[in-house]
Amino acid sequence: MLDSLVKDNIKGLLPYKVKEYTDIIKLDANENNSAAYLLNEKLCEAIMGLEINKYPDSDCTELRNMLAKELNLDARQIMVGCGSDQLISLIMSAFIGNGDKMLTHIPTFGIYKIAAQIEGGITVEVPLNEDFSFDLSSFVEAMEREKPKVIFLTNPNNPTGNVIPREQITKIVQLSKGIVVIDEAYYEFYGDSVIDLVDKYENLVVLRTLSKAYGLAGARVGYGAASGQLMDILYKVKPPYNVTSLSQVAAKVCLANKKVLHDTVKETIEERGKMINSLKEIPNLEVFESHANFVLCKLNDAKGVYDYLLNNRVLVRYFGEEGPLANCLRISIGTKDENAQVVGLLKKLMSS
Ligand code: PMP
Known about the structure:
The structure is a single chain. By secondary structure, the chain is an alpha/beta fold. The protein has 13 helices and 13 strands. It has helices at residues 2-5, 8-11, 40-48, 61-71, 83-95, 111-118, 136-146, 166-175, 228-237, 245-256, 258-280, 302-311, 336-350; strands at residues 25-26, 78-82, 101-106, 122-127, 150-154, 179-183, 204-209, 221-226, 285-287, 294-299, 314-315, 317-318, 328-332. It has a seven-stranded mixed β-sheet with strand order 2-8-7-6-5-3-4, with helices on both faces. Helix 5 crosses helix 9. The longest helix is centred in the C-terminal third of the chain and has 23 residues, at 258-280. The N and C termini lie far apart (57 Å).
């Protein structure tokens, strides 16, 4: 009976399952392993003052004011979400209906396609070049052919770590007759952004998250910036009280303590350089340049290497044997010690 009730576009979806491991070096989800507990004392203090019996501020007023000041935007131009995942879903629910097209590049973050499918949308994917750089001319061709209502570009891209130059993003925003979303989840590890352009282009949305550089993945806080007109539309589909008061407090503590952010980002970038150099020395392993807090490698037997690392209590991300990420592993940059361990294990396995 349930089968006849469920929407057709949902039938083909699989639940997003994440296996939990204990006692493991976790380098599979691009979290910030160095930031763990650094702000706990300040967090506890801030949480002590909370009236948890009351609903949270539905509009995240203080948090948005802090972000608006930092970004030189009006608070009206900002929305906070339960992770940027929620903002991705809200954009789809506002702009994508049955049969509407969403254009993105491949490979990229898998949630865009799922969120579009939930709304009945059709995802069109433009392959990146073989070295994972962005193929502007194919993308523009696809825009003209498919006339997408929504475009998603990830900058820096997950899981490849490559970036799209600012002029190319600007060109796409100018040419697009639909909404263009630039997902800057890994912005802090790159440093270049187009968030300043949201005042200029009413169809541009920039997404960011506190889950990566800020080390706040457990609190689920992301934010979006756009023109006031575009945000007025998105606020129509935002669920009330979508960010818990605990999460709002945690985000405010993080934003007020930028030194932790700057120190961990600096360390991650240094460690990323070291990791890439070390991996380059390993035979039969190709490592791609990265502007994020992870590196992507191509190997002959990615599944075998993944299993070997797992047996040694190191978890990385494996993408299966099909498609452009066949035989690829993504390794998040962890603490100095964790990075040394994963490099040591790979050297031991692959240089012998
Ligand atoms: N965008 C990209 C490109 C990501 O890699 C991720 C997390 N893996 C997200 C968005 C979602 O982040 P969150 O929901 O934790 O803010």
